[in-house]
Amino acid sequence: MQSVTVYHYDAFSLQPNEGNPAGIVLEADHLSDQTMQEIAFKIGFNETAFHLSSKKADLRLRYFTPGHEMNLCGHATVATLYALKSRGLLGDKSELTIETNAGILPIQIEEKNDDYFITLKHAAPQFREFIGSPEELTKSIGLKPKDISEDLPIMYGSTGTWTLLVPIRSLSSFSKMKPNNQAFPSIFKEIPNASLHAFCMETFDQEADMHARHFSSPYSGTIEDAVTGTASGVMAAYYQKFMNPNKKEAIKLVIEQGYEIGKNGRVYVSATPDTHGDVTIKMSGQAVYVNTFEIKLIEKIK
Predict the structure, then answer these.
(1) The domain that contains 270 carries what CATH number?
(2) Nearest Cα to 202, choosing from 242, 259, 159, 250?
(3) What angle in degrees, to the nearest 10, is found between the helix axes of 74-86 and 229-238?
(4) For the CA atoms of the chain, what is the radius of gyration?
(5) 89 and 209 share a domain?
(6) 61, 145, 276, 299 - which has most CB atoms within 10 Å?
(7) Does 279 lie in the same domain as 150?
(8) Closest of 298, 284, 282 to residue 118, by C-alpha
(9) Within-domain flag for 45
(10) What is the pLDDT of residues 193-223, one digit of tens each?
(11) What total number of domains does the chain contain?
(12) What's the pLDDT tens digit per position in 38-72?
């Protein structure tokens, strides 16, 4: 039986065991898809990132939940790039590209106060209308239709990974949420494997602009994502498209997430429209090292 070294970093926080945990496996080219999935399952975090070489970009990242591979994961990207930079594996590079299943994406690394700030440009935002039952939707997260804001649309959104964006009327509703992820596919008929991202404009922190909770697709093998980079990115696109469509300058938002499960974190996002009607989405954050451990493998590594 062989083992693989895993680095645990928490993204979107400067405090260990807050923010969103990510498992990171460096130099993983020798691992098969089956082995990567086995490792992610044994770790049990919402996502584990595998760092590989690339012929198309500076490096390649693959992301696995305990249940399946994801095209893109924001918090695991921030954590992995932070780990690579802080361990001296990127040299003096401050701009680079990463190959993901969502495309080739540019990364910026800024040094601030002897620490690193990672910025990821997301894929172009996409939206699809939700035409399901609001009653069934709210029941699946332990709420009632009256808890949904009537001023904003419920929409599927993606900047690399599809999620259902659900506007909530009041911050007090978030502590009442009890997700039944197994019900999601029957309700999300348009995109059955989507996750759910509930948000509101009321916040605990006066310096934050939006509050959110993120509930995983049942296929991922997890229930809730503590602080979500990809969903925060598409939330910036949602804000620009549905809440402030006439603003021509960049919109910058601070997203707070994780309060209800003791994983308080912050994601910094921006949406910048151009003269052609396209929008550039960027997501930024920091990370913190927690520990290193070994995963024993059943499958023999080649």
Answers:
(1) 3.10.310.10
(2) 259
(3) 120
(4) 19
(5) no
(6) 61
(7) yes
(8) 284
(9) yes
(10) 999 999 999 999 999 999 999 999 999 989 9
(11) 2
(12) 999 999 999 999 999 999 999 999 999 999 999 99
φ and ψ at residue 257, rounded to 5 degrees: -155, 155
Query: Residues 82, 188: one domain?
Result: no
pTM: 0.91
Question: How far is the C-alpha of 231 from the C-alpha of 210, rounded, in Å?
Answer: 12
Tell whether 107 and 161 lie within a shared domain.
Answer: no
CA distances from 184 to 127, 161, 291 (A): 18, 16, 34
On whether both 35 and 108 belong to a single domain, the answer is yes
Choosing from 18, 47, 99, 224, the catalytic residue is: 47
Domain membership of residue 52 as a residue range: 2-121+287-297
What single-letter amino acid sits at 144?
K
